[in-house]
Specification:
Keywords: ATP-binding, Cell shape, Cell wall biogenesis/degradation, Cytoplasm, Ligase, Magnesium, Manganese, Metal-binding, Nucleotide-binding, Peptidoglycan synthesis. The chain is α+β, with helices and mostly antiparallel strands and 337 residues long. It folds into three domains: 126 residues, Rossmann fold (3-Layer(aba) Sandwich), CATH 3.40.50.20; 112 residues, D-amino Acid Aminotransferase, Chain A, domain 1, CATH 3.30.470.20; 69 residues, ATP-grasp fold, A domain (Dna Ligase, domain 1). 37% of the residues lie in helices and 20% in strands. The strands form three sheets. Strands 8, 9, 10, 11, 12 and 13 form a six-stranded antiparallel beta sheet that branches. Strands 4-7-5-6 form a four-stranded antiparallel beta sheet. A hairpin with a 2-residue loop joins strand 8 and strand 9. The chain is globular. 45% of the residues are buried.
């Protein structure tokens, strides 16, 4: 069995110091790594959050998701865990299920709502039921193309949804397996790329407009939207555009009117509430020329790297990033007392 590369800092000794109403500073375990396609991004997110929390005086340990984790949690007995895991297991609710069974509090959404958000078609159905707009779509498994013949199915898709289209796996993140298709002859290649990351494809009508990300934080008065981040990626906001410096231009706050900014903030808060999310989320959307905000997807484990959108939004709001991270930890700790 191949072992994953260790997470940097994961072997740091556990120490507790200070005081925070518990007679000591809360011990936070940041989960980072895992074995999904997004392992490297998770490690970068975990490292950044751990450094920020340590700067506020908290005791923080970074740990991978491996065979040692449950024993580590039993012996260490952390006050809270922050799962900064992207991709399968980290976002599909399974790790959160295990944390619930182990009786360990954690930052973020619970397993059931995480499972809903992880499956994009199910999440889109919930958003539509809540009265939110999302691009028209169909969901098709790879087996259907074998059963009915690929070309007839592809022709039917184009006839029904038109062009351009966006093809993406029904589960996953970081734009892995995602393609924008402007010509019918490019659709077969897009489907092959999608099926490399999952057995089922979500094909949706591409919406032209301003690409935005709106993060939501649970505050004392309920969910609150942070300033929208506008994303300008010449060749599409793919994996490289997300994580390679210089590939994408960000405007934070986004270049919106006050009315538009209020509208997309309201949409993100409504999505957060409709999907029953907790502590933090990020809603990705397109604002079209008519002022309609189409929700593309919602994320329960937003990236926290140096290029990620939620940290940019926090800074744009004028808040202290480490301080906000600490407040999320304290919210999770106090919720179980």
């Amino acid at each position: 069995m191949t072992r994953a590369t260790p997470v940097p800092g994961a072997s740091a000794p556990v120490t507790r110091s200070g005081a925070d109403g518990l007679g000591r500073s809360p011990l936070v375990v940041v989960l980072a790594g895992g074995l999904s396609h997004e392992r490297d991004v998770s490690i970068r997110s975990g490292r950044r959050v751990a450094e920020a929390l340590r700067s506020t005086g908290l005791d923080v340990v970074v740990h991978d998701v491996d065979a040692d984790l449950l024993a580590f949690l039993r012996t260490t007995r952390p006050d809270v865990v922050w799962p900064l895991l992207h991709g399968a297991s980290g976002e599909d609710g399974s790790v959160r299920d295990v944390l619930d069974m182990a009786g360990v509090p954690y930052v973020g959404t619970g397993p059931r709502a995480s499972r809903t958000v992880w499956n994009k078609p199910i999440a889109k159905a919930a958003l539509l039921e809540a009265g939110l707009a999302t691009p028209d779509y169909v969901t098709l498994p790879q087996s259907l193309f074998r059963d009915l013949g690929a070309q007839p199915v592809l022709d039917t898709i184009v006839a029904h949804l038109g062009l351009p289209l966006v093809v993406k796996p029904t589960e996953g993140g970081s734009a892995l397996g995602v393609s924008v298709v402007s010509r019918a002859e490019d659709l077969p290649r897009a489907m092959v790329g999608c099926f490399a990351y999952g057995e089922t494809a979500l094909i949706e009508r591409a919406v032209d407009g301003v690409e935005l990300a709106v993060s939501v934080i649970d505050g004392p008065d309920g969910p609150e939207a942070l300033p929208a981040v506008e994303i300008v990626a010449e060749n599409g906001y793919d994996y490289g555009a997300r994580y390679v410096p210089g590939e994408t231009e960000f405007f934070t706050p986004a270049r919106l009117t006050a009315e538009q900014a209020a509208h997309v903030a309201d949409v993100a808060v409504r999505a957060h509430a409709a999907l029953r999310l907790r502590h933090l989320s990020r809603t990705d959307l397109i604002l079209d020329a008519d002022g309609t905000a189409y929700v593309l997807e919602v994320n329960v484990a937003p990236g926290m790297t140096e290029m990620s959108l939620l940290p940019q939004a926090v800074v744009a709001s004028g808040r202290d990033l480490p301080g906000l991270y600490r407040s999320l930890v304290e919210t999770a700790v106090h919720a179980v007392r």
